Amino acid sequence: MENANSVRDSNFELLRILSMVMIVVLHIGNHGLGGYIDIPVFLSGFTEVIYYFIRSLTIIAVSLYVLISGYFLSNSKFKITKLINLFLETSFFSIAIYLLNVVLGYVDLGIVALIKSMFSVFFGEYWFVTVYFVLYAISPFLNKLIDNINKKEHAYLLLLSFLISCIWQFVYVNEEIGVVGGYGLIYFMFLYFIGAYVRKYNFIIKNFNKNVYLLFYFLLAATNGLTTYISEINFGGIDRLIQYNSPLILAMSYCLFMYFKQLKIKSSKINFVSKYVFGIYLVHEQSTFRQVLWNEFGIVEDIISSNGMLFIVKMIGYSLIVFLFCWIVSFTITSIYNFLYRKLSKKSTFNKIKTAAP
């Protein structure tokens, strides 16, 4: 039986797991199905409505990750070793998966591709890691700002950031601003400030019961999904409705984040699974394996061979299978990386001691 006192809170760890499931669902739609079919043409009626509803439910995944980061990092000490480890681990994943694809014959060995894998953070192999890397690098300065402004000033900062990111840059996009539909550093900083505000002051404007937050999340997702469906039918789609910096998507992200914040969960199993979920992203979004995953295994072909709700069921089912498969790969690669890292760290420490000896 678990000793509850020895297990840290698992509410946000569970949210990390759920967020990664959401990301896989999004990618099976974008990178998988999107490469084979035109969703508005292929689907129709109730099935299309459900597809857009699921898309709306899951589009908040990246925002959730950054909110969690802001919540915790704003109250933690910056460690250069953590930044270096993020670079090294990401590179290790990218190189390992690339070389595995070479060995299996899916791609040819190329020097340029190998170098890009070695420096994947800097070359943008994983766009999220690249932006997050910079966000963590500047986090000490963001935290200094947060620590030296009062609640009212922090609220004004959030309001100004919201007006710039989710109103101005949602309605009319200027790439020079750096919001980039929610993919840019400016928007990540905004989410970081929100997470930090909740950490310091518990909520924004007014707090609600967790079930109210959950209800709001589903209602907003239904609204966004239905609006997206109507826009596809009448206007051929409005891409901004599913951008990360959409006001609706921000509101959904905040609601689900606040719901999980109020949960009281302690589970060593959840915490264990959560340790390796980020690697799922590094596995299935590695550029060479992404092509293999969605083009070689027959996943997409099987989904699009189905009609009606079976299409949706298979899409969700395969997302869970991909999640589980990539978690196992992530666990394996992370274990190898940690073993090598410890060995090299010990050797480095030994050499330093030996060099310093008289």
Query: Tally the helices: what do you get?
Result: 17
Radius of gyration, rounded?
22 Å
Low-confidence stretches: 1-5, 349-358
> Quick one: biggest sheet?
none
Mean pLDDT across residues: 92
Strand content: under 5%
The tally of beta strands, per DSSP, is: 0
Using the alpha-carbon principal axes, give the shape.
globular
Termini separation (Å)?
52 Å
Number of domains: 1
Structural class: mainly alpha
Helix percent band: over 70%
Q: Secondary-structure element sequence?
A: HHHHHHHHHHHHHHHHH
Q: Mind explaining what this structure looks like?
A:
- The chain is mostly helical and 358 residues long.
- The protein has one domain (4-356).
- The protein is built from 17 helices and no strands.
- α1 runs antiparallel to α4 and α1 crosses α17.
- 36% of the residues are buried.
- The model is unreliable at 1-5 and 349-358 (pLDDT under 50).
What brief labels describe this structure?
single chain; mainly alpha; globular; 75% helix; 358 residues; disordered N terminus; 17 helices; disordered C terminus
Secondary-structure topology with pairs:
Elements: H1 11-32, H2 39-42, H3 45-58, H4 61-73, H5 80-103, H6 111-118, H7 120-123, H8 127-147, H9 151-171, H10 185-201, H11 210-235, H12 247-261, H13 268-274, H14 277-284, H15 287-296, H16 299-304, H17 309-356
Helix pairs in contact: 1-4, 1-13, 1-14, 1-17, 3-11, 4-10, 4-12, 5-6, 5-8, 5-17, 8-10, 9-10, 11-12, 14-17
